[in-house]
Amino acid sequence: MIREPLPAMFPVAPLLCALVLALLPCGAPAQYGTTPGAPPGIDPADFMSVIDHEFLPLVAGRKFLYEGPAGDAIERVEVIVTGEVKSILGVPCTIVRDRVYRNGELIEDTDDWFAQDNKGNVWYFGEISRTIKKGETVHTNGSWEAGVGGAMPGILMPGQLLIGETYRQEEAPGEAEDMVRIVSLDAAITTAYGTFAHCLQTEEWNPLEPGVVEWKYYAAGVGLIAERVKGRDDGLELIAVIHE
User: Fold this and answer.
1) Mean pLDDT along residues 185-199
2) Which of 65, 96, 101, 207 is least enclosed, having the fewest CB within 10 Å?
């Protein structure tokens, strides 16, 4: 998910999103997304009870803390692997809770639903995203669930990583349409949590949010360690991992 952006300051290359819509992640079911409106072709028997991808291990009870600038504010994000499960299309999905604070005030509270298949692909089955103002939910724009209203699951992280590969992370037309491209498998980055080499770097954009491109960095055995908004100083970096 690309977070609600500040005003855009630069253009995205034209036609980029249109050119990649037909591309699929390696190892995804062959029938997935080949026909508009087609069923996602998900077989619950193909899924595992754990998410142990090298670059996205989601262990129940683990909490990730991120912090960074967002315009003139400081943003803090808490990501919690809850250990709770939601069944979607018959697949038991891990619930990951994502809370965003800006200058100490909760502004977004999201539950994401992920599952890993036996080929190592981590699938994104949807989210309920609540925008919060003064402690109250004001809307749930951007929320979606695979199998509802034409939405289909996307790929959060392919099991086989190939530089240049482009894939759909979200596929809920009009609500959530994130696209991702793998940029590097050997990136190096330093955060408050540590210095990491041989990282996975991705580029993420959304045709619903023109002008916003994010780079994300993932470290083996840890997961997401940093986000950078292209052309701006905005971004997040991992500051702590807590095991509960």
Assistant:
1) 96
2) 207
* Amino acid present at 43: D
| Measured distance CA(212)–CA(237) in Å, rounded | 18
CA atoms within 13 A on the CB side of 167: 26
For the domain spanning 16-24+50-243, the CATH number is 2.50.20
Task: Note the pLDDT tens digit of each residue in 49-78.
Answer: 999 999 999 999 999 999 999 888 999 999
Given a contact cutoff of 8 angstroms between Cβ atoms, the answer to whether 107 and 98 are in contact is no
Q: CB 212: neighbour CB atoms within 10 A? A: 24
Q: Is the pLDDT of residue 151 over 80?
A: yes
Phi, psi of 218 (to 5 degrees): -125, 135
Structure tokens at 100: 């965003």
Q: How far apart are CA 180 and CA 168, in angstroms?
A: 6
Backbone angles phi and psi of 68, in degrees to 5: 175, 170
Secondary structure class of 230 (helix, strand, coil): coil
